[in-house]
Amino acid sequence: MRAARVTRLDGPEAIEVTDIDEPTGDGVVVDVHAAGVAFPDALLTRGLYQYRPDPPFTLGAEIAGVVRSAPQDAHVQAGDRVLGLTMLTGGMAEVALLAPDRLFKLPDNLSFEAGAGVLFNDLTVYFSLAVRGRLQQGETVLVHGAAGGIGTSALRLAPALGASRVIAVVSSEEKGRIATAAGATDVVLADGFKDAVKELTGGRGVDIVVDPVGGDRFTDSLRSLAPAGRLLVIGFTGGEIPTVKVNRLLLNNIDVVGVGWGAWAGRHPGALQEQWAALEELFTSGKLAAPEPEVFPLDDAAAAVASLENRSAKGKVVLRMR
Ligand SMILES: NC(=O)c1ccc[n+]([C@@H]2O[C@H](COP(=O)([O-])OP(=O)(O)OC[C@H]3O[C@@H](n4cnc5c(N)ncnc54)[C@H](OP(=O)(O)O)[C@@H]3O)[C@@H](O)[C@H]2O)c1
């Protein structure tokens, strides 16, 4: 089978698409039709992610495809359309082997390409907003990195979970158009976002900040919160890990809330199934739109992963595997 392989830790450009043996062992064998690309894939190509597999390894944390074979007691069977999580490698291959409890039935109204772009981000964002962020009906949400994978997921999910206004923060007009298409009610540029948000909200600020970027905008994010607001710490694509002067939390009655979806799922059996059940209901009822990913062919895996590192990615990025 063909697979996107990391053979040396020299970044996305060093990814090679080569022939390797199909995986063997216990689990569900899936003919992969599409594989999601996420920021950790870029970090893995440089050995910079918290999980550091030794090369050679196959990239890919999330897939959509068709079950080829499954253990008799599994909840899926041969021929089922599925989406799944490899946690965290092995997905960018024509065939993948997954634990049954990391696989879900793909809703009929989702294509393989949309399905491959769902799990990693939508489960994280669902956990962020509904569980860690305690999103209430009618609240306003500000989303950093809004044209990225986590960002477009937050723009789609926040209204479905009750937010009445979702403000996107982006670095360019072009990314603003991507954010609007994903559901943003308002778009502001990263440069000067604090003042723009104050103006948009009549000086009140927002109830929740979704922050996958971190870096030097963090203090202005805290200043953009309304009283009792929550800032959700999701990632640090901006590079720098910010620090918090905790007097700011006291003065405005605000929270900085950590979101570690993978760590939570790893320690809470059944959490993935519960989170997926909530998302599935939103998809099948039509309350949540499918992602509209930017699709690259498997042969262009290096360019696909590089687009996240070099900041040119447009929304969620997915590889077409066959
Ligand atoms: N905590 C969790 O459980 C969890 C789960 C999944 C992902 N994550 C993390 O969430 C973050 C976002 O992942 P993603 O897949 O959404 O990434 P992505 O698609 O590449 O989006 C990230 C966004 O960050 C912004 N950005 C700002 N400075 C950047 C820089 N120097 N380099 C690259 N991007 C920059 C970009 O928007 P602008 O150009 O518009 O600024 C970009 O659209 C990652 O750190 C990832 O590890 C965390």
Stretches where pLDDT is under 50 for at least 5 consecutive residues are none
Structural class by sheet pairing and helices: alpha/beta
Ligands and ions found: NADP nicotinamide-adenine-dinucleotide phosphate
- The assigned CATH architecture of the largest domain is Alpha-Beta Complex
CATH class of the largest domain: Alpha Beta
Main sheet attributes: strand count, strand direction, barrel closure: 7 strands, mixed
Let me know the CATH homologous superfamily of the largest domain.
Medium-chain alcohol dehydrogenases, catalytic domain
Tally the structural domains.
Answer: 2
End-to-end gap: 11 Å
Assess the beta-strand content as a share of residues.
25-35%
The CATH topology name of the largest domain reads: Quinone Oxidoreductase, Chain A, domain 1
- What's the number of extended β-strand segments? 16
- Rg is 19 Å
Shape: globular
The pLDDT mean sits at 97
Determine the number of helices (DSSP H or I, runs of at least 4 residues): 11
The secondary-structure element order is: EEEHEEEEEHHEHEHEHEHEHEHHEHE
Which percent range fits the helix content? Answer: 25-40%
